[in-house]
Amino acid sequence: MSSPSHGANAPRTYPSRPEAVYFYGTCLVDMFVPEAGMDAITLLEREGIRVIFPDNQTCCGQPAFTSGFPDEARRVVEAQLDLFPGDHPIVVPSGSCAGMIRWHWEKVCASDPALKARAEAISARTYEFAEFLLHVLGFNRKDEGPATTVTLHTSCSARREMGTHLVGRELLARLGNVTLAHHDHESECCGFGGTFSLKHPDVSTAMVSDKVASLKATGASQLVTADCGCMLNITQRAAREDQDAGRACASLPGEHLATFLLRRTGGSPCGEQK
User: pTM for this one?
Assistant: First the structure.
């Protein structure tokens, strides 16, 4: 008997353009890179989508789940199952968090059939931000920025579970003045892994150092990614290396894909507004 399809290669039917979506901001975006969330919302609203932001959303439960605490993860999930009534799609500006909701919420609720059914219903209408922008909204606006070369990072779990490398490449390819430079460590983990970087700092540092070297070797002007945890890990390591080498300017600046797309298509990113 074959196992059910799972992850980026699983077939998926996309809905027609909705009137509204729920926006699941993620705790990391909320605490460390709120401008990425605001720019993602601006892009959605500019496409004519009404964005609903549930006030009581918290963490997706991934840190507890991947650290081996399923009961704690279940309590996090259970507390949020009532936040998305109706049938609006749920858009998440992080591939790893979207993957947690789409593929693992039902697992942590498996011991309670009623909870599992509710989690499955939410999972079925959860979309990673770039996936939603490309496949549901057909995002294809004119590139108004100067010619530039960028490199793309997608988190290892987001690649496997949500195919973020494919949708990210396609969105960047639609920008006429942007060249995407591929790097030879693209599929490898950056060493963040949530609590992994705290539990195994030496291993994590070695991994992110390899990733930074690969990204810099492309000669790209900046890093673009749809996962802020990875972005913070990579750019902060690059900044430390620049500091150690006595370089005053950042050699590998990074930003969320939403911010990059907004600026390139005539918008004003949240962090740059006067």
Answer: 0.93
